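QA checklist item 7 of 12: single-chain prediction sanity check.
[x] sequence parsed
[x] length recorded as 107
[x] structure emitted
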Amino acid sequence: MLFTSGFHVDTVRVALLYGILDTSQYHRMDRRVMAIPLEVLEAEVLGLSPAERSRLLDKLLASLDPDPEWEKAWAQEADRREAAIEAGTAKWIAGDEVVARLRAQLK
């Protein structure tokens, strides 16, 4: 069952169940021309598969206006890091190891 705005009634029920959406917000919704509350949209997105979320993230990031200064600075930093690895003054560290190190530092 869909509302005419295009999102599933089940998503709204889950949002209500987990407190993402409260009942007063739900009752104020216009089911004919309803904007999806951000909390409900988040719940829908988090229900996607990792591949679908990745694709959506790529599209969202591409939709943002790029900052040329940031892009230039990041490209320079990436080049610097790559050169350090090639020169042997730095090395790759697996993501799992990085997370483990960070968690240990936070304890």
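[x] summary fact logged: The chain has two domains: 9-63, 68-106.
[ ] second reviewer sign-off
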